[in-house]
Amino acid sequence: KVALLVGVRAYDHSKLDDLRFPDRDAVEMADLLRQAGYTRVVVLSTTLGEREPRLRPTGDNVRRAVDDILRGRTKRDAVLLGFSAHGLQLDEPPDSYFCPEDAHPSKPETLLSFSKLYGQLDDCGAGVKLLLVAACRNAPTSKGGKGVDGDGLPRPPRNTAALFSC
Hints:
The protein has helices at residues 22-35, 46-51, 59-70, 114-123; strands spanning 2-7, 40-45, 78-91, 94-98, 112-113, 128-136, 160-165.
């Protein structure tokens, strides 16, 4: 059992308000997963990133960590991916996204696409895959995009459960 947990408390862009608890949620969830027998738990968070830059929840770090945690998995593995921060939905291109700390709300290339993440999970060989997303949006109808619509995403890939709290 392996997990990647990402919590973003502070953002670089003024259209994304800082949040109070996402990084703490990620750290506390990591403790619970370790107690439950997870052999590898990776945490990227604002607080951890202040001490160790490779643990900052930037777009590049998150993408690298996702690739790393999914690589080489077999049907005997269970993978949990947890994202806690802002999320948004854009009309062009139409998709829902997770906002890393260096996200720019009108530049999709700076965001983490949930559709693309579904594709990565589909390609992953793990027997069990769980995606947990707490991706709120303070002003979901602002020019910076609407809040994430988990129901608007395609069905999760085979052997994958996806739970959205948005």
